[in-house]
Amino acid sequence: MVLPQNYLTLPQSLYQLNSPTAVSNPELLYINTRLINELGLEDDFLSDSQQSLDILSGNSSDLVESALSTGYAGHQFGNFVPQLGDGRAHLLGQLTGSNNVFDVMLKGSGTNRYSRSGDGRCGLKAALRELLVSEILSVNHAPTTRMLSIVSSSDTIMRQTIEQSAIVSRLAKSHIRIGTFQYAALHQDKSVLPALLEFTLANIYPKAMNAENPALALFKLVLDNCVDLVCHWLRIGFVHGVMNTDNILLSGETIDFGPCAFINSYDPDACFSSIDHQKRYAYKNQPSIMHWNLARFAECLIPLVDKDEQTAITKLSNALATFGDKFKNRYATVKANKLGFNESSEIISNLYDKIVETSQRNKINFFDIFKQLELQDTNQDTEQHFKDFEALKQEADFDLTRMTNSNPRIILNQDIETVLDESVAQHSIKPIENYLAYLNGSNNEQYGDITQKPVKDYQTFCGT
Predict the structure, then answer these.
(1) pTM for this one?
(2) Which residues pair with 144 in a beta bridge?
(3) Active-site annotation holder among 54, 155, 246, 267
């Protein structure tokens, strides 16, 4: 089976048509039936076990016809790299769901011209990490790419140690990134950038195609979605860890789950990446970095917004300037919702700030402190914020369900590591499924024990 491949309508300079590299002894370790059912995916090949295995492992000869790897540039930790690209990934085409169309991409599927001397492969634990963390985000209503499958193989790779390799398939509304536009903007052929704009509008934001200024309309829509995304990250204590421009999808979905983690007690300086020595992508910096990344996107759009460069800069600058107020207003609503209130106010926002300050000062788990409020834990009634919260509930539009839906169950990095190690050791997805069932409330297994000491100097790595 060959999936339709809309990326073939793009200029060939933006991709390399090439097939995945076959793996040895592939085994379908996981298929995300929950995702298939949620999205109403057409499952012609998903219903055939052998065909599924051939395609999802990259071993199918059918993939020669349409599999490709996309090129992009990017600012990595603030430094511009003119050519990056899918160095170990192959875009297979599109699957149609009940309400949308999704890209299907294999990762760990072999080398191509963007590999930069890499081996083109993915380790099994890294594959499992992407599955687990993306599903944690999904369970907690944060926009994210999703894992469709994991295929293990008997091939091994060298990372910190020798590891079993795996191939994952990922679904996204689109894999067009800010870095894709940076790549196109560098091209000597001036028709490449307008072609990418037309493709992006048609496949991600079709309503903007008829706008008076489609490129400017695109920028505003991307900005709105990026504001929403970063507010979700802050809401659930998520630290992305590698917010390079090549890791910001224009669809507003989370992508790249290497150096990511969750805060324990509230810590605005939390940073878990082993290579982010300056804490550029720390928890508190995520809004300002998103703003900075959007400025880089705006630079690419200048020739598309207006023939007069200064006029285009003014229009884009005015649009970018709305980021601050939009973030402030959206985040204020997030704070209110985490406390169970529908609308934000200065009083509610100040109360939230006092609560997270208490979490930081007393080293109370960021997730647990909101659960204490939710469960009316009077053991902490010496803290003034508990008294203020109870008083405010009598005055404002409080809804316990809203509060519960806005706050995850306790997420601990040490639990994530334990679950991943168990899955690797057992060569089974079951430990991950049990943990996700705990997070979505469908079982009460014991996770989130805040009496455990956090992993000292917990670090995550890009080299996955």
Answers:
(1) 0.95
(2) 254
(3) 246
